[in-house]
Design brief:
Elements (H helix, E strand, L loop, with lengths): L1 H35 L4 E2 L2 E8 L6 E7 L2 E6 L6 E5 L6 E6 L6 E7 L2 E6 L4 E6 L5 E6 L6 E4 L4 E4 L4 E5 L6 E6 L1 E2 L2 E2 L3 E7 L2 E6 L4 E5 L6 E6 L3 H5 L21 E7 L4 E6 L4 E7 L1
Parallel strand pairs: 1-20
Antiparallel strand pairs: 2-23, 3-4, 4-5, 5-6, 7-8, 8-9, 9-10, 11-12, 12-13, 13-14, 15-16, 17-18, 18-19, 19-20, 21-22, 22-23
This protein binds calcium ion (CA).
The site of calcium ion (CA) has 9 residues, from strand 3, strand 17 and strand 21.
Length: about 280
């Protein structure tokens, strides 16, 4: 009886020691990570307006330029570059890509439009007036999203990396890994530089990330769960035909543009029937 009690007591002591050690280890690793990257803050926003949009546009890149949208739409045989009237959603100009091109993000730098392609390893250059193709540059990675700061283009490739490159040559200046308090954050997609921060869609996740381009840390997050359903009055039946969900149709949140003059964001998704004008706190 005594022996059993002793064994039991010793067993519990070992167990307690092991528990303490584990809990200490986990506290150490938490406090280490916590001190490096704080948990992102929740960013609030208000939807101000909704504007009609082409439901066949598989949006990959969205930007405001001279009072209109510039858009890049994806999918093989359906990829386009467009200038679109914001209020009506009508295409003012539309240039079709070659059938073998799957177009991705777009941005304007020094009056030149840069349009990415997904796995074609090409970046297309256009003038901003006629959307006339004026050049093509090789790009070794996949192309997903693109924006720019004052000096350089910033490209995502579906990983957790942002590539800072020189306009005109795409020569690499810097690669930045993006992370939050839980580690690296991949699937970075459409991008938009606003007031010194990079806002990013994350493919198949219902939030928009606010990234500090100096550190790669995610400093804030906009919760966009069920955003389309909550904010549209349009019938979304066309996205769920053949028993597939909107996500299975590929109709995910993607597309962030910013109007510096009005200080508003424009948010949309692939195949969405509307673009939403949003004020972000
Ligand atoms: Ca954008």
């Amino acid at each position: 009886m005594k022996r059993t009690l002793l064994a039991l007591t010793m067993g519990m002591a070992v167990l307690l020691y092991a528990c303490n050690e584990n809990s200490q280890k986990s506290q150490d690793s938490n406090s280490q990570e916590g001190s490096l990257v704080p948990e992102p803050a929740q960013i609030n926003y208000t939807v101000l307006n909704a504007y009609p949009h082409d439901t066949a546009a598989f949006i990959q890149g969205l930007e405001v330029f001279n009072g209109s949208f510039l858009e890049s739409t994806g999918l093989f045989k359906r990829s386009t570059l467009r200038k679109v009237d914001i209020q009506s959603g009508k295409a003012l100009k539309l240039v079709k890509n070659d059938d073998a091109i799957f177009a991705e993000g777009l941005t304007v730098f020094n009056d030149t439009i840069y349009q990415l392609s997904w796995e074609n390893h090409k970046v297309f250059l256009y003038d901003t007036k006629e959307l006339k193709k004026i050049g093509e540059l090789p790009w070794s990675n996949e192309g997903w999203g693109i924006t720019h700061d004052d000096k350089q283009l910033i490209i995502s490739d579906g990983s957790d990396k942002l590539y800072f490159v020189q306009p005109g040559s795409l020569k690499l200046n810097k690669v930045l890994s993006v992370s939050d308090n839980l580690g690296a954050v991949n699937n970075l997609n459409e991008l938009e530089m606003v007031d010194g921060y990079v806002y990013a869609n994350r493919w198949q996740y219902d939030y928009i990330l606010k990234i500090d381009p100096a550190t790669g840390f995610i400093v804030g997050r906009l919760n966009m769960q069920d955003f389309l359903k909550r904010n549209t009055k349009k019938d979304l039946g066309y996205l769920t035909q053949k028993g597939s969900t909107a996500e299975e149709s590929g109709a995910v949140l993607n597309g962030i543009a910013y109007d510096k003059g009005k200080k508003v964001f424009y948010i949309t998704g692939k195949l969405w029937p509307e673009v939403f004008e949003v004020r972000v706190d």
